[in-house]
Amino acid sequence: MNSNTIPFDIQSNVSLQSKTTFGIDASACQFVDITNVHQLVQIKQNSALSSLPRLVLGGGSNLVLTGDFDGLVLHMALAGRELVAEDDQAFYVRAAAGEGWHEFVQWSLSKGWGGLENLSLIPGSVGAAPIQNIGAYGVEIKDVFHSLNWFEFATETVHTMYRQDCRFAYRDSVFKNELRDLGVILDVTFALPKHWQAKLGYGDVAQSLAGIEAPSAQQVSDAICAIRQSKLPDPKVIGNAGSFFKNPLVSAELRDSLLAAFPQLVSYPQADGRFKLAAGWLIEQAGWKGRALGRAGVYAKQALVLVNLGGATGADVVALSQAVQADVLHKFGVQLEPEPVFV
Fold first, then answer.
1. How far apart are CA 95 and CA 187, in angstroms?
2. Which DSSP symbol is given to 18?
3. pLDDT level of residue 250 (50, 70, 90 thresholds)
């Protein structure tokens, strides 16, 4: 076969509006659904395709399109989930990168494997979860992560990476830094504990389950789904990328000075002595909750979420994001950092 012959479909001028949760009208010059690793090798060996700018797309829940993408979009559509091993401590469960995250969580719970329930209803795909080290209600991916398989474009090889290799931090990993754009995650394996215990450290969750003496993992999941649905907009109804800003980490000195000026400040102590501030509270106090700028707005029920009010462009979202950042910085001296990637 000629190295420039591709035995699968590459589409041209494909709309990405329905493939991202923010629903911004933008298109990709070239687009392909990736269903196996051999396609990645063939694309790399094709001189015309390998020279194009490349964008890896999962569930599109952590992406803001600022315009059309003049390159090749690799839409990760690898499927499959299975129990690959178990020992006295854990069930080792693998899911392909293209699996929907929430669907995978619910599948694991249906098998009786707890550990992911606090991460229920987070939009996106399994392959994107380690990149962001997604977290919610006291649990992060790193807490249940075992390993992943990562395809390196330059060498056309697959590497198995373990927790220490991924350099997980708050909403961060090696895949957002040193390895950014150098490869793609193919699948992820989780170590789900056999000696499971419910993690109910957040007030909303504990309150929802107050009448249940020993809640099951499924009951925790159901409670968290209900909480999220009451606070966060459904991307299928109102375009959004979930929590738009990271909760900022600040020094104890800055937190104390802010607490003196703002006694209602919401903060959480961290193991390293710093404090995590609630970005949603800062944004609300800066007067942005429920406000709009152009066709993008701050969600009326949760100030941490920016929404597409209908026909928003990437420029609308960028302008709103920058305006919110400027007002929070002016009022509190704290710089907010967006979670989504701008492309």
1. 6
2. G
3. very high
Contact 48, 6 (CB under 8 A): no
81-86: strand order across its sheet: 81-86, 90-96, 183-193, 145-152, 157-162
Q: How far apart are CA 246 and CA 338, in angstroms?
A: 6
**What are the b/e assignments for 47-75, b being 16+ CB within 10 Å?**
eebeebebbbbbbbbbbbbeeebebbbbb
**Known active-site residue 339:** yes
pLDDT digits (tens, 9 = 90+) for 255-297: 999 999 999 999 999 989 999 999 999 999 999 999 999 999 9
* CB-based burial, 6-31: b 16+ in 10 Å, e otherwise: beeebeeebebeebbbbbbebbbbbb
What string of H, E and C letters represents the secondary structure of 228-250? HHHHCCCCCCCEEEEECECCCEE
Model confidence at 26: pLDDT above 70: yes
Residue 8 pLDDT: 79
This prediction has a pTM of: 0.89
Question: Has 208 been annotated as catalytic?
Answer: no
Both tokens assigned to 249:
């980490």
Catalytic residue among 54, 171, 228, 255: 171
Query: Closest by alpha carbon to 294, among 325, 323, 331?
Result: 323
Q: Which domains does the chain have, with CATH numbers?
A: 11-76 (3.30.43.10), 81-229 (3.30.465.10), 233-342 (3.90.78.10)
What's the pLDDT tens digit per position in 35-63?
Answer: 999 999 999 999 899 999 999 999 999 99
Choosing from 243, 255, 267, 321, which is the catalytic residue? Answer: 243
| 134/142 Cα distance (integer angstroms) | 9
Tell me if residue 178 is catalytic.
no
List 99, 117, 140, 339, catalytic entry: 339
Q: What pLDDT, on the 0 to 100 scale, is given for residue 249?
A: 95
Query: In angstroms, rounded to a whole number, what is the distance separating the alpha carbons of residues 337 and 128?
Result: 19
Sign of CA dihedral 215, 217, 218, 220: positive
